[in-house]
Amino acid sequence: MVLTELKYILTIVNDLLKFAETKNGVIISFNSALIFGLFKLFENQFCLLPCWFLCFYKISIIILGLSILSSLIAFIPKITNFRISKNTELDEKMNSIYFKDLALIASNKKYNEYHRILLNKLEIDNEKFSPYIHDLINQISNNSRITLKKFKCFNISILFTLISIIILITINIGSP
Q1: Domain ranges (residues) in the chain
Q2: Could you list the pLDDT tens digit for every one of the 176 residues in the chain?
Q3: Which of 17, 33, 41, 51 counts the highest number of beta carbons within 10 A?
C-alpha cells in the first residue's frame, strides 16, 4: 500500500518537474523572440532615436537577458543529494504529496518521519520501512527540490520579463 502511494507521489512530482521545465523553456523562447523583435524593430532607426529612449531600450534588453539567464540556470543539472537546514520540522499538517513540503525531507530521520506521517494519513497501523521505500522517498525528496528550484527560477524570470515589458511600454508611451 505505501509503496503504491509513494510511486504515485513520485509520478506527481515528476509531472510537476516536467511542467516547471516546460515553463522555463517557454519563457526562454518568448524572451529570445522579444529581443530579436526589438532589434528588428529599431535596426535602421538607432541614430534617429533620442538618447534617453536608447538607454531604457538597452536596459530593457539587459533585463530580458537576465530573465533568460535565470531560466537557463534552472536547466543546470543537480544530481547530488541536496542539503537543507536541519531545523525544518515535518508535522502531521504537511501535505504528503505537495512538492514544496516534500522538499523538506532531508535526513534519514526525516525519511522515517515522513514514512510515519504517510502511514498515519493512509490509516495504516505499521508497515516495514524497507531500503527500497527509503530510496523511493529519497528520490521523491530530490525531485521535489529540483522542481522547487525550477519554479523559483521561473518566478524570477517572469519578474524580469514583466519589468522589461513595463519599461518598453513606458518608453513607447513617452516617445514622440
Answers
A1: 2-174
A2: 677 887 888 899 899 999 999 999 999 999 999 999 988 887 777 677 788 888 888 899 999 999 999 999 998 876 555 454 455 565 556 666 666 666 666 544 566 676 666 667 666 666 666 677 777 777 887 888 888 899 999 999 999 999 999 998 988 776 65
A3: 17
Spatial distance between the Cα atoms of 174 and 26, rounded to a whole number of angstroms:
30
Place of cell 536608447: 54
DSSP 47-73: GGS-HHHHHHHHHHHHHHHHHHHHHHH
Are the C-beta atoms of residues 168 and 60 closer than 8 Å to each other? yes
Distance from the Cα of residue 36 to its chain's centroid: 25
Give this prediction's pTM.
Answer: 0.76
- Report the chain's terminal Cα–Cα distance, integer Å: 68
